[in-house]
Amino acid sequence: MNQPVQKNTLYVGGLAEEVNEAILHAAFIPFGDIKDVKTPLDQATQKHRSFGFVTFLEKEDATAAMDNMDGAELYGRVLTVNYALPERIKGGEQGWAAQPIWADADTWFERQQQEEEMQRIQAENRAAMQEAEELHRKKMAQEREGEREEETDTKVDPMAMAEAEVLIQGSM
User: Fold this and answer.
1) E strand or H helix at 13, and its extent?
2) How far is 91 from 100, CA to CA, in rounded Å?
3) pLDDT for the residue 112
4) Which DSSP string corresponds to 23-70?
5) Percent of the chain residues past pLDDT 90, beyond the cut
6) DSSP summary character for residue 1
7) I need a labelling partner for 172 at 20 to 30 A (CA). Which of 8, 106, 157, 164 fits?
8) pLDDT by residue (tens digit) across 97-135?
9) What pLDDT shows up at residue 1?
10) What is the pLDDT of residues 75-99, one digit of tens each?
């Protein structure tokens, strides 16, 4: 996976033990204004790890420094100067990421809010659908009940008819 290079930050490898950030700054200042100089320390020895990073304010200055200092000698050691790759932090797709985990905290909160809003809308829609289904069931039940009443009104009960005839004949 190719990582984008930082065109104004240079990797400087092959540093002698005597070289510190001040000496590295002095070696690169002729090429332009420097924003930052770092020499990462080895945690066990508290000495730099024989490389450093020089960040220039302008990309053109970084290019000039790389062109002139790659292969140059500093304190008896030949320097390797290249554009720096982004810092790799554990946790990305390949086990490393170019950003710390908290770098996308704002977008994470936005995604969480959007997800919560979607869940709320879905719950409202489900409730509205259930209410509509319940109303439909009640309407259908009322229609069936109305049909039953009509059936009982129109049905002829033979016993009731016989009793009515007897009553009519008895009164005559």
Assistant:
1) strand 6-13
2) 8
3) 86
4) HHHHHHGGGS-EEEEE-PBPTTT-SB-SEEEEEESSHHHHHHHHHHHT
5) 50
6) -
7) 157
8) 556 666 666 777 788 888 999 999 999 999 999 999 999
9) 44
10) 999 999 999 887 665 555 555 555 6
CB atoms under 10 Å from CB of 20, counted, come to 15
Model pTM score: 0.50
> If you search the block for the tokens 């930050």, which residue do you land on?
9
Give strand pairing partners of 37: 54
Max Cα–Cα distance, the chain, nearest Å:
143
How far apart (Å, rounded) are the C-alpha atoms in residues 167 and 43? 116
d(CA 170, CA 120): 74
What are the residues whose beta carbons fall under 8 Å from the beta carbon of 12, sequence distance 6 or more? 24, 28, 51, 52, 53, 54, 69, 79, 80, 81
Rounded-to-integer distance, Cα 80 and Cα 108, Å: 39
